[in-house]
Design a protein that fits this description.
single chain, alpha/beta
């Protein structure tokens, strides 16, 4: 057994896979990551993900399983549920099982979804019939595939009307209200995957109430900010809240669904038997660990620093002459807009990756280019914040970005990026 290597058992059992893993670990260590949907899980979360819970099958819910031998699975799932509620200040809610729905308008939670896309589909299946009308944000203006895009299951099985942003590149609430009154949708989805401003959940809630619709808040990107007090909460205004667990929350790849009142019954049935079989119990264990981490003072500091870093980097790039959609950011991400240049988002992405900076190409509102090579590049700061970087590092990185885009001394820029990255290793990594 090769005990001097990061994964000695894997190197001994399968050197080929271990070598590929080592390469990925080195890439993560030596690059600076600005993909807003990525982050670094703590060593404890990663350890829970690799725990013996991966060996157990447990269709059903706590105290109502289809397999025996689940006493510890029940315990870990109940703990994950309780911690999920506590993370968002919902400690008075009923989380015990699908047999006991929340009372008095309280909140319950399902921690079993495999990821965000099936979680959203479960919400739609639980609240709507095939062909029912819903509202969601346009994909090319900040929304997600699962918010009704025509090629996704959400747009295939349900009738989604799509709202977007106005000329100021902010959510057009007049359009949302007009669509809601015209179509009387069963539900309205708010939340985004590429929107750099605070989401006005209160206004969405009022529009949904006036239209007789459920409000579904997909906060996958900003749930870590919400838990840390760096973004307003959707819970006073929404009926359903969904979040993935691996973005700003820094957990494993999974999702959770919070449901108000009796709605949890429909959500639970939509998960199983509707869409899934046995939950990934090792992921549930890791989710429990992750939610414990969100209640620490250091997590709250981290959440606020994410926003500070995004704003610092965005401001510096604006000073260097770059255009950002809506002029900046209020949250964890921003979009650089290259429509007025000869560059495409794909070209910029490649130039950045050549110097070990990862940021993904992305459409911008009103984008004239094709989705596979759009006009924008999306930057998010959760990963660099997890690594301990702050405003001084954002200023240094802004210079790296500027020089990389202009192709000024790419070799020296790459060396600088790698040196800075090694100075701030991800949790559990050795520099």
């Amino acid at each position: 057994m090769k005990k001097d290597l990061p994964l000695p058992l894997l190197h001994d059992a399968d050197p080929e896979v271990a070598t590929i893993n080592d390469g990925e670990e080195l890439r993560q260590l030596e690059s600076i990551n600005f993909i807003p949907s990525e982050n670094y899980a703590s060593p404890a979360v990663r350890e829970a993900s690799a725990s013996v819970f991966t060996n157990k099958y447990s269709e059903g819910y706590p105290d109502a399983r289809y397999y025996p031998g689940n006493e510890y699975v029940d315990e870990i799932e109940k703990l994950a549920q309780a911690r999920a509620l506590a993370a968002f200040g919902l400690t008075g809610s009923d989380h015990r099982s699908e047999r006991g729905p929340a009372e008095g308008g309280g909140w319950s939670v399902n921690v079993q979804p495999y990821s965000g896309s099936p979680a959203n589909l479960a919400i739609y299946k639980g609240l709507m019939e095939q062909g029912d009308i819903a509202l969601g944000m346009k994909l090319d203006q900040g929304g997600h595939l699962t918010h009704g895009y025509k090629l996704s299951a959400s747009g295939t099985f349900f009738h989604f009307e799509q709202y977007g942003v106005g000329e100021d590149e902010l959510i057009d609430f007049d359009q949302v209200e007009q669509l809601a009154q015209e179509h009387k949708p069963k539900l309205i989805v708010c939340g985004a995957t590429a929107y750099p401003r605070v989401v006005d959940f209160e206004r969405f809630g009022a529009i949904a109430k006036n239209a007789g619709a459920y409000l579904v808040a997909d906060v996958s990107h900003i749930s870590g900010l919400i838990a840390g007090g760096a973004h307003p909460s959707p819970f006073p205004h929404a009926d359903i809240v969904m979040t993935t667990t691996h973005k700003a929350l820094r957990g494993p790849r999974g999702a959770v669904i919070f449901a108000k009142g009796e709605l949890i019954k429909n959500i639970n049935k939509a998960i199983i038997p509707g869409l899934q079989g046995g939950p990934h119990n090792n992921t549930t264990a890791a989710i429990a660990v992750m939610f414990k981490e969100t209640t620490t003072p250091t997590f709250k500091e981290y959440a606020h620093q994410i926003v500070k870093n995004a704003q610092a980097l965005a401001d510096d790039l604006v000073k260097r002459g770059y255009r950002l959609t809506s002029g900046g950011t209020d949250n964890h991400l921003f979009l650089m807009d290259f429509r007025d240049t000869k560059l495409s988002g794909g070209e910029v992405e490649q130039r950045l990756e050549a110097v070990h900076i990862t940021a993904n190409r992305n459409t911008v509102p009103g984008d004239p280019r094709k989705p596979f090579d759009p006009s924008g590049v999306r930057f998010g700061t959760p990963s660099v914040t997890t690594r301990g970087m702050k405003e001084p590092e954002m200023a240094q990185i802004a210079e790296f970005i500027d020089r990389a885009i202009k192709k000024e001394g790419a070799e020296k820029v790459a060396e600088g990026v790698k040196a800075l990255a090694r100075k701030f290793p991800p949790p559990g990594f050795s520099a």
